[in-house]
Design goal:
By secondary structure, the chain is an alpha+beta fold. The protein is built from 5 helices and 13 strands. The strands form 3 sheets. A 6-stranded mixed β-sheet has the order 4-5-6-13-8-11. Strands 7-12-9-10 form a 4-stranded antiparallel β-sheet, with no helix packed on it. Helix 4 packs parallel to helix 5. The protein is globular. The protein starts with 7 loop residues before the first helix and ends with a strand.
């Protein structure tokens, strides 16, 4: 069976640690049909209310660690991230970034739960956490100044800055087609969506509050 290229092909082989959050194992199982052994997770965690029995059994037989987490006050994504950080520390792994595949499609409440996990992530791990699904990428910018390189050839046409969780009283950017200068971003006033880049290849963003960066990526 011929399988389409996905971000898994370049990200998972290079990953120091691979994990699935509950039902995410179903997705991994189905999209890697024909080459599943090349994409085995190190562990699968969650309350296991979403993982299919045959998928759970397959990965168990393959030696993947199954970690049941029953806390219903946290999402499976958040709990998986907590476990990931503990394993990184225990193994002494050198990590640059945590990349999450999935979590932005389907149900809107689950998409918002993924965004909420990015807010929690700052208290869980010191590493940046990026979420990617299909043509979208999101990353929570912390207060301060950020420099983004957008000349890799993998960027799509659009980008945006979303003040989720709070209003941002002062946002300044360069490198965008429609830049902001000490601009207030908040729902009901201004949200920067459907923006794009100038030709500089670099975007700078300075914000006084956490601010969600979103951008298109080529599939």
């Amino acid at each position: 069976m011929e399988r389409a290229f996905t971000p898994l092909d370049c990200l998972l082989p290079a990953a120091a640690l691979r994990a699935c959050a509950d039902g995410g194992a179903n997705r991994l199982y189905h999209i890697t049909e024909g080459s599943r052994d090349s994409f085995l997770p190190d562990y699968i965690s969650g309350d296991f209310d979403s993982i299919q029995p045959e998928v759970k059994e397959y990965y168990k037989v393959k030696g993947c660690e199954l970690i049941e987490t029953m806390d219903q006050d946290l999402t499976d994504f958040t709990k998986c991230l907590q476990i990931l950080q503990k394993k990184i520390e225990k193994k002494g792994l050198q990590i640059d970034v945590i990349v999450t595949l999935g979590g932005l499609g389907g149900r809107f409440d689950q998409t918002m739960a993924s965004v909420e996990t990015l807010f929690r992530a700052t208290n869980i791990t010191p590493f940046p956490v990026i979420v990617i699904q299909e043509c979208s990428l999101i990353f929570l910018l912390q207060p301060g100044k950020h420099k983004l390189h957008v000349d890799t050839g993998l960027e799509g046409a659009w980008c945006g800055l979303i003040p989720i969780g709070n209003s941002c009283e002062s946002v300044t950017t360069t490198g965008l087609r429609w830049n902001l200068t000490n601009q207030v971003l908040k729902f009901g006033t201004l949200v920067s969506t459907s923006n794009t880049y100038d030709d500089s290849g670099i975007v700078t963003i300075e914000t006084d509050k956490p601010l969600l960066w979103t951008m298109a990526i080529k599939r």
